[in-house]
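protein under study:
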Amino acid sequence: MKRVLVSACLLGINCRYDGKNKLNEVLLEMLKTYEVIPICPETEGGLPTPREPATREGDKVITNFTKRDVTPFFKLGALKTLEKAKKLGIKKAFLKSKSPSCGENGITAQKLMENGIKVEWF
């Protein structure tokens, strides 16, 4: 069975900035033929749940209200996610769209794609 990385919030794990999840039933159905490895790069990088929402601004990630630079947490989470993918021989990831880490322009998504891992967003 092929292993895939999946954004933990899409699996119903409450790890999003607002302390909630984005359970995706369609994705769950698709994943029945895979060995699923849940990931949340933001918590892996050391950010708490819940946390202040943040937005990607160029090569930085800045919190929306206090304007704090949280880029180091996002970069660490991306690195840990990539290390896990390499260690487990993962070639594909299903990630949460519109996220500063997992989204289409997210730090983790970019890191995975730069290293040959195919990404699909939900």
About this structure: The chain has a mean pLDDT of 97. DSSP finds four helices and six strands in the chain.
